[in-house]
Amino acid sequence: MTTKSSTNSSSDNQAIEHVDVLIIGAGISGLGAACHLQNDCDNKSYLVLEGRDAVGGTWDLFKYPGVRSDSDLYTFGYDFKPWHGQPIAAAAEILAYMHEVVDENNVAPNIRFNTWVTHADWSSEDARWTVTVKSEGTTKRYSGNFLFMCQGYYNYEAGYQPDFPGQEQFAGQIIHPQQWPEDLDYSNKKMVVIGSGATAATILPAAAKTAAHVTQLQRSPSYYLALDNSGEDEMIEELRALDVPLDWIHGIKRRKMLEFGRDMTERSMTTPDAVREELLEGARAALPEDYDVEKHFGPDYSPWKERLCLLPDGDMFAAIKSGKASVVTDQIDRFTKDGILLKSGDTLEADIIVTATGIELCGLGNIAYTVDGKAVDAADNFSYRGTLISNMPNLAWIFGYIRTSWTMRSDMIAHYVCRLLNHMDELGVQQCTPRLRAEDQGMNGKGYIDPEDFSPGYMQRGIHRLPKQSDSAPWINSQDYYTEKDELPNAAFDDGVLVFDNPKPGKSQAA
């Protein structure tokens, strides 16, 4: 594996470290991309530029109580490293897994920490991207022939924080989960968590163990699904008894979870009323007999129009049934000195208010891009197969699945990028750019994620920051693993959209 980088000098005589591929982000996508490059393109040098001081991305950033996966780890784990723990795992377990990946693949020497990318400039003359980073109070530059954006999809600096009336009057603490203080003591305190998504559903049962009481305050409900988190069943026990290899058992678990997800998604689209009733019935079975399940767990949208929240072993339901936690469905009138006054006239007393109000989408890392000296905004361009972006040479990005585990797509895209890089070498070219064909001119443009298909608040607020898609291939971002798993690995490069040019010095472009 070639990992050595070279240096060159910029016009201001600053040494620039140069590699074949620059990977932005050392989270689940970036570390996977690094490993896939080593396996599929072992002649390519690379660096991983990470803005923070540790690997892990999401799993190192968030510190709120109980932080865990909201996808099963059998499908969330990499395709080259089986997961052998529980289906739903805590952040610490996922971080340990990711550190194993770094160690086992010797990725650490290629990571540059505290390098926050602010600008990325493409030069066709040099056939490379030059990125400018902030690094511990100084400005540095790195260059690479290919830019692989693996920075995630939300703003790491701050989450979505609404301006609540009267919040300056509140005498206690107001905390957003993205900035959770690691030393926060909430024992024997009354906590109100504003929100109804996966973060709120995680904090509630975890904090209820030591808090005086935890109340989840929601304007409208979400769907929740209790999941057995043992990872075992009769068939798996029988396979263990037969000494079936662990990796085989993992493969079976992975396939079972994929089939479960496929079935749930398809039925949510074709028979939404039946799936809704199943989910509500699951809540009824786990909650007190007189609990108003329809009010607190019956959204006014169909299942999977927003993310379906998984509850390991039904922990949220158990916390509510114990009396240590509760859900209130109402609207906020204003904050008061001692808590929150609701539109209904009721008051929620609180020592701590947690605003689990969501994330802010980030368009390709909040980076200023130029191509040959001209500013380029990815949001003005089209996404090619959900992976490359029109008019942006030698750039790929990873946005995982919204209904299947993120990593199922990040693995797939990394394989695709490696195949593309090898194809460019075969052609003897330095540049690949998706361009709209004549028949693509004037095609309709819509959100990278179709709002009619998936429309949570964070997506509605930030979809304008992402590239567009269309109804015409190959400008469709299908977000369908079961289609893409067959299409993307076999997608042809000679489709008239990908323009390969800029021959390598001393070589003529292959026909």
Task: Give a concise summary.
With 511 residues, this protein is α/β, with parallel strands linked by helices.
Can you walk me through this structure?
The protein is an alpha/beta fold and 511 residues long. The chain has two domains: 6-72 and 80-157 and 362-503, FAD/NAD(P)-binding domain (3-Layer(bba) Sandwich); 167-355, FAD/NAD(P)-binding domain (3-Layer(bba) Sandwich), CATH 3.50.50. It is 28% helix and 23% strand. The longest helix is centred in the middle third of the chain and has 25 residues, at 246-270. The model has no long low-confidence stretch (mean pLDDT 93).
What's the tally of helices? 13
Number of discrete domains? 2
Classify the secondary structure makeup into a structural class: alpha/beta
**First-last Cα distance:** 29 Å
Task: Tell me, briefly, the overall form.
Answer: globular
The residue ranges in which pLDDT falls below 50 over 5 or more consecutive positions are none
Q: What CATH architecture of the largest domain do you see?
A: 3-Layer(bba) Sandwich
Strand content: 15-25%
Q: What's the level 1 CATH class of the largest domain?
A: Alpha Beta
What key phrases describe this protein's structure?
511 residues; alpha/beta; FAD/NAD(P)-binding domain; 2 domains; 5-stranded parallel beta sheet
SSE diagram, text form:
Elements: E1 6-9, E2 15-24, H1 28-40, E3 46-49, H2 58-61, H3 73-76, H4 91-104, E4 111-112, E5 116-123, E6 128-135, E7 138-149, E8 173-175, E9 190-194, H5 198-207, E10 213-218, E11 224-227, H6 234-241, H7 246-270, H8 272-286, H9 293-297, E12 309-312, H10 315-322, E13 325-329, E14 332-335, E15 339-342, E16 347-349, E17 352-355, E18 368-371, E19 374-376, E20 383-384, E21 388-389, E22 395-397, H11 406-427, E23 429-434, E24 446-447, H12 457-462, E25 468-469, H13 481-487, E26 498-503
Parallel strand pairs: 2-3, 2-7, 3-4, 5-18, 7-22, 8-17, 9-10, 9-17, 10-13, 11-12
Antiparallel strand pairs: 1-2, 5-6, 6-7, 14-15, 15-16, 18-19, 20-21, 23-26, 24-25
Helix pairs in contact: 1-11, 5-10, 7-8
